Amino acid sequence: MWVTKRSGEREEYDEGKVRRAVLRSGAGEAEADEVVERVRRVLYDGIPTEQIYRLVGRLLDRRRSIRFGLKGSILLLGPEGHHFELLVARLFQVLGYSVRTNETVKGRCISHEVDIILEKGGERLMVECKFHNSPGAKCAIQTALYTYARSLDLDDSSPLAAPWLVTNTRFSSEVVTYAECIGMRLLGWKFPEEGGLETLIDRNRLYPVTAMGLKKAHERMLLARNVVTVRDVIENRDCLFELMPESSANEALEIARDLLV
């Protein structure tokens, strides 16, 4: 049995892959077995992976469904990288950093627009965010080289600690090797193993608003106001009632509060 990925590429259906993803969402063994069996009943050759993801999402409760579909929810923050940068900035704030975004900083040779500047414990760092629109894309070595070159130019005029490179997908093996060699810090999908991007988002309840199941029009209005995470929804409740009907605003607040518990 073959499935069709978003890219149009076909690959053999891997039941174990679906089961592992369901278990990672927090489901137990029996629930995972039931989900896999329900998926098995609707399979046909060439089925889009999106159809499988939607079915699994409907079979899980809200928190588990959000964990299961987190990568897709982050993709919906696009197509540009601005809202992903804000999500990353919110994450570093929760982790205790002082954060500034989209600042132009003069280097030794040229000026640079830096996605995020962090400060903590006397340490000052730059963060380069690389947003990919395709879930199968990998952050390539060219991005790591570019990030390090920028950090060197900035370091000459305003000393910085080792830079961060953050992406919503995986890193190529070349990027990992290069980063280890020069001391660059990486944060991406399932990297590092003990605390990748998806783990930190879940641990700190920083789910994007695109994971809440709101109407698409309401999602876009919130993102236009830079309301990017469920925490932002709570902190900007007045904005909700400006942008959507009272019943929809109250529902959004209820979902956000439930996800922060």
Question: Any chance you could write out the topology, listing elements then pairs?
Answer:
Blueprint: E1 2-4, E2 10-12, H1 15-24, H2 29-42, E3 47-48, H3 49-59, H4 62-68, H5 70-75, H6 82-94, E4 98-106, E5 111-120, E6 123-130, E7 138-139, H7 141-157, E8 164-167, E9 170-171, H8 173-182, E10 185-187, H9 197-203, H10 216-224, H11 230-235, H12 237-243, H13 246-260
Parallel strand pairs: 1-3, 6-8, 7-9, 8-10
Antiparallel strand pairs: 1-2, 4-5, 5-6
Helix pairs in contact: 1-2, 3-4, 12-13
If you had to describe this structure to a student in words, what would you say it looks like?
With 261 residues, the protein is of the alpha/beta class. It folds into three domains: 2-68, no CATH class; 82-199, Trna Endonuclease, Chain: A, domain 1, CATH 3.40.1350; 207-260, DNA polymerase, domain 1 (Orthogonal Bundle), CATH 1.10.150. 51% of the residues lie in helices and 18% in strands. The chain contains 13 helices and ten strands. The mean pLDDT is 94.
* Secondary-structure element series: EEHHEHHHHEEEEHEEHEHHHHH
In this structure, how is the largest beta sheet organized?
Answer: 5 strands, mixed
CATH class of the largest domain: Alpha Beta
Average pLDDT across residues? Answer: 94
Structurally, the number of domains stands at 3
Radius of gyration: 20 Å
Named at the architecture level, the CATH assignment of the largest domain is: 3-Layer(aba) Sandwich
Give the strand tally: 10
Strand fraction equals: 15-25%
Strand order of the largest sheet: 4-5-6-8-10
Shape by Cα distribution: globular
Low-confidence stretches: none
**DSSP summary: helix tally:** 13
Query: What is the terminal-to-terminal distance?
Result: 40 Å
